[in-house]
Amino acid sequence: MQLTISRDALLRPLQLVSGVVERRQTLPVLSNVLLEFNDNSLSLTGTDLEVELIGRVVVGDGGKAGEITVPAKKLLDICKSLSEDADISLTLADDKLLLKSGRSRFTLTTLPASEFPRVEEEPDTFSLSIDQDRLRSLLDATSFAMAQQDVRYYLNGMLFEVASDYLRLVATDGHRLAMETVALNNAISETQQLILPRKGIMELSRLLTEGGGEITLTFGQNHIRARVPEYTFTSKLVDGKFPDYNRVLPKGGDRVMLGSCLELRQAFSRAAILSNEKYRGVRVMLSNGELKILANNPEQEEAEEVVSVDYEADPIEIGFNVSYLIDVLSTIGSKNVRMTLSDPNSSALLEAEEGSDALYVVMPMRL
Question: pTM score > 0.85 for this model?
Fold first, then answer.
């Protein structure tokens, strides 16, 4: 294998592909990136057996076809350290990859391409196309509510619910829930529910570019595949059943508050400074025209914030994890937020006053 490529052309696909590669691996080849060069095209592949990402770069004429795997982090660090306008020459000789740029020379160890695991091909069940900007905003609006390392493994990911006329994304960690729906015409007859793992969501989100046009998502029995011109992303699906989110959505709340997202977020952030570091609980007291936030901690320190809001129902006092409220208020894009409550033991429903179909549910805390 032999080729010459500019440092800038190699760096972005290498950064994205390296993001998939895990540092600590039981299989040494999984910490490598697979390089394949033929027909003036260089493809780079990274995988952790759950998620696979292939990036493609067009290279100038000349060179010699071949394939090999090299340590992903070392190759990325070398590329980052070179000057922006540098050209990089890659040559495979005696099972080593020789990298030259200007007066710099690096020799990297390699492992054969035949050892590199590939995601098995499987028949597709259905696919959908969506604008990259729209999908990115859907993921940004919901992904924060995914669980991180919950024993209920199906919560460590996001539900994609696909029907003939909509796509709905739902994430929950058992204490809060985020959901957004977008109208789409999909060529399927019955509603499908599929769970993408957390890492798959994060890598897919990094792949989406502003103004990048449409992306096609293809679903199989066990995998999702996304294709854009320069990249092919594949992720295993989580084998499990997502909880029925409709049972979690609060219904019949008769206490409705309307307030400024910015003012409320700033007030909650200030109160959070003196909340209990472990439990992060704050007391929220709603009365005519105002919302009062009270926080305290084991050191007997206290914080009190009062925010003017539009509220005319009966007074109510309810406890929340302040971090969950700040997350929602940071995500909602509109100027004002609507909060619907029914009683101190029921979840709160938060939504943007206008411009978004996203719904957020935050469970109360006993303080």
Answer: yes
Angle ∠(74,56,116) on CA atoms, nearest 5 = 55
Place of tokens 């206290």: 302
CB 217 within 8 A of CB 130: yes
Residue 137: Cβ within 10 Å count: 17
CB 319 within 8 A of CB 365: yes
Q: Is residue 160 domain-shared with residue 62, that is, in the same domain? A: no
Residues of the domain holding 255: 249-362
Question: Do residues 325 and 144 touch, judged by C-beta distance below 8 A?
Answer: no
Q: Do 11 and 93 belong to one domain?
A: yes
Domains of the chain: total = 3
Contact at 8 Å (CB) between 364 and 324?
A: no
The partner residues of 32 in beta bridges, in order of sequence, read 71
Residue-wise pLDDT tens digits, 150-205:
999 999 999 999 999 999 999 999 999 999 999 999 888 899 999 999 999 999 99
Residue 345 counted as domain residue: yes
Q: Which of 80, 115, 150 is the last residue of a domain?
A: 115
Residue 164 sits in the same domain as residue 98: no
Each residue's pLDDT tens digit, 104-153: 999 999 999 999 998 877 888 899 999 999 999 999 999 999 999 999 99
Q: Residue 102 — left, alpha, or beta (φ > 0 → left; ψ -120 to 50 → alpha)?
A: left
- Contact status, residue 324 vs residue 351, Cβ threshold 8 Å: no
Alpha-carbon span 181 to 97, nearest angstrom: 48
